[in-house]
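User: ABC-2 type transport system ATP-binding protein, Thermolongibacillus altinsuensis:
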Amino acid sequence: MLEAVELTKQFKQHKAVNKASLFLERGEIVGLLGPNGAGKSTTIAMISTLIPPTSGDVRFNNESVIKHPHKLRNVLGVVPQEIALYSDLSAKENLQFFGKIYRLSGMELKTRIEEVLEIVGLTDRQNDLVKHFSGGMKRRLNIGVALLHEPKFIIMDEPTVGIDPQSRNYILETVKRLNEEKKMTVLYTSHYMEEVEFLCDRIYIMDQGHIIVSGTKEEIKNILSSEDTIQIKVERANESFIQALHQNPIISRVTVQDGLITILAPKEVNLLSTLFKLADETKTVLTSVEIKTPTLEDVFLHLTGRALRD
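Assistant: Predicted structure for ABC-2 type transport system ATP-binding protein:
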């Protein structure tokens, strides 16, 4: 349905995106992940025709979007990372305004507004001013605006940032339902790995402007199929213990986050006795040690050296 071919974007001396290629089949939900500054937003801006690439092309149904942008724009919905609503208008008034920009009018516009309000769960709040909405309600209305013209392809740039768990779950279920019932194709970026696990058929991981890996969730997890993730909880983080883990040649990665020490090591090596010995030597009290199968988050850390939220 859509293919980006060696997209590159140069801003003066900074190359934000460097020969990034990706594709979406009709009806897929595809995740685009990367730490902050990886080039995701610039890639999305080029795909959605907001900015032209320095080189490369975007093809929609085998036609160049660079040369014929209207063919994609007519069927594209974009949910931006920033809330793009008028706070002094009601939910219904916002939808009326943006609906007219989409060239909807009369009964068609009225019907679409009613349908969209139902989809995003705001029918009973349609006449309330947006400035009185919670963050989750604003996010849902932001999605509603992108759905007004019944797009076949929708780009969602971190649509759940900074909202409560209930609103977040509602949005995820809505995206899933739109994909299953309307066969809508979705390009989804997020700072929450569990969202990608729940929604996406395939994933692209970006870092420093490059697509560094792509595949299904299972294919990406298999990158670390020969290694185990070991999670260690201690009474308090002992620097000498952590340093000893870093210096152990068998351990390929050590991360410390929120009091949890996570290490990556080959499956065939039994590290437990080594861990207990290091803890004893450094007078570190271990409260739990758990061996887990590597997750998408582990692979992401392994490939980029940074957490998704960094």
